[in-house]
Amino acid sequence: MAGLDNNMLSVIECLAKNKIQDAKNAAIVCCKNDTTKKNAANLNYYQKLLENGNSTFMELPPNLQAYMSLEDVSGFREDRYYVGEKQQKLYDQILVGTKVSDRLMEYGISYHNSTLLYGVPGTGKTELARYVAYKLGLPYAYLNFSNLIDSYMGKTAQNLSRIFDYCKGMKCVLMLDEIDCIGQARQHNSGPDAEMGRIVISLMQCLDNLVHGQIVIAATNREDILDKALKRRFRNKVEFTKFNENEELKMIEKFVESIDLMEMDQELIEYTKGNHTQSETMDFLVEKLIQKVSKEVI
Question: From CA 166, how far away is CA 148, in angstroms rounded?
Fold first, then answer.
């Protein structure tokens, strides 16, 4: 094993002296100088994180840990993730949005790179958000609204504000899952309905105050019950559906190509005629793999 070069030593020195930004700069040089191509995908992701001035190693404050999580997506398996036509088009729109946001910043104009995904469960809404974070080299922050609702309703809006305030400190992909839990259309002006209405307003205010570099992707299975004013806060609104037979076949083929124990057979081809969700198809493929591995180890 080769010894440490000057840049590696510089990283260690800067960390020891708590010179974090200098350590990041030296680490970027280390990434660029790696010629082995070993772990190239991970290095590329971490280099983007360093250049964006972010880190997935930030620890969540104790008062937010019950509601959201930061996930390291550097290990995202792009080699077995099939990007459908609709998903690719949406990713391209989000990518263009990041460039538009950078340009508009020169004129002092804000741009909200926000997307609402809706459709039946299991169609890949959450996984698309992970894919976007991986491709853009950004931290992935996940918030499930079903965990956010507090028995003391006034605290729900307070918790929501804390989460968005925290995320303002970094560029990231913020995934808002099950947004229908608190984003339902406002009804009455008294009692619990009135409090839920105030929470919806608080959420809209948080979305209005997004800062440069943030990408928000919200997901719901019940787009029909969302507040109309809330839906207008999202620049992109895309329905995710089950893959058609051709796309399901491509999804299966991509997975099989990434697993040396598997190969295409008639059973896999016939499976595409069953009108499955992407989640159901992935479960089926994993079960097939488990069966093959089990035969090998017996």
Answer: 15
